[in-house]
Amino acid sequence: MKIAVIGGGSWGTTLADMLAKKGLTTRLWVREQKVMNEIRNRHENTWYLPGCPLAPTLDVSTDPAHVADGVRHFLFAVPSQFIRNAYTRFLKYLPKNAAIICASKGIELDTLMPMSEVCEDALGSIKPRFAMLSGPSFAREVIREIPTAVSLGCAHKKTGKEVQEALSTPYFRVYTNPDVRGVELGGAIKNIIAIAAGVADGLGFGSNARAALITRGLKEMSRLGKAMGADTETFMGLSGLGDLVLTCTGDLSRNRQVGMRLG
Asked: What pLDDT, on the 0 to 100 scale, is given for residue 251?
């Protein structure tokens, strides 16, 4: 399988490196020429992952046409507020029924669309097969091959199996779930609870308050998910409870750090 990874930040670089080291033909699209040159020449992305050597077989480019050539599986890992621009940039290079794997967590601010709806709105003309990758997964731990488990939301069973097999490694386990809406919402709205948990920590409220926020926050996430058509059971899994616990307690969580500074 050939796979294109769109986005040279910490998460996109980590996933591309993992796929290349697994032996898949992997192309990474980055926006900045200096990042491309560094990865090509030094096999390292010091802008986002300093000290982490990358696979020498990883093909990196700033040219969408080169990255997309002959590829049917595209993994987008750009910030959620720029995902529409990324889709638009690549649209003319995407084949019909391309598999679009979204690793960007969030809600589009201008439209309030979750990532699956943004994909359909931007790429509907090619009838994409959409999958949502989410779950408790700090890039700095994955690139060090620390055991990680995530959810893959995909309504297309065959596509879900293909992507699951492509992404799975001995240290990166992927569980499929047909509830795309639940998987994508869990990864997006847990950030709000994480900021609140960070505020509580910053105020010195202690473990009791943090536990209460996580527990009641999970309930609110489930209620909102149900109202938006998700399966509440999904929020008990990796993309819900798993990601919520990690983001509310992990020192690498940017949302928690924001909350702590506010507190």
From this structure: 87
Helix (H, G, I), strand (E, B) or coil at 211: helix
Residue 143 sits at φ, ψ, to 5 deg, of -70, -20
pLDDT per residue as tens digits for the range 78-94: 999 999 999 999 999 99
Look at residue 213 and tell me whether its pLDDT is greater than 90.
yes
Two domains, one topology: 2-178 and 181-262: no
User: How far is CA 138 from each of CA 10, 70, 148, rounded to the nearest angstrom?
Assistant: 9, 30, 9
Residue 263 has pLDDT above 90, yes or no: no
pTM over 0.90: yes
Locate the domains of the chain by residue range.
2-178, 181-262
Residues 232-261 pLDDT 10s: 999 999 999 999 999 999 988 998 999 989
**29-39 per-position pLDDT tens digit:** 999 999 999 99
Tell me the C-alpha to C-alpha distance, in Å, between residue 93 and each of 12, 72, 86, 143, 219. 19, 10, 12, 29, 42
From the list 21, 190, 219, 226, the catalytic residue is 190
CATH number of 181-262: 1.10.1040.10
- Give yes or no: 157 in active site: no
221 — phi, psi (to 5°)?
-60, -45
Q: Read off the tokens for 76.
A: 């987008």
Which numeric CATH code is attached to 2-178? 3.40.50.720
Q: What does the DSSP assignment read for 9-66?
A: SHHHHHHHHHHHHHT-EEEEE-S-HHHHHHHHHHS--TTTSTT----TT-EEES-HHH
242, amino acid identity: G
- pLDDT value at 142 more than 90: yes
On whether the CB atoms of residues 164 and 176 are closer than 8 A, the answer is yes
Q: Contact at 8 Å (CB) between 197 and 259?
A: yes
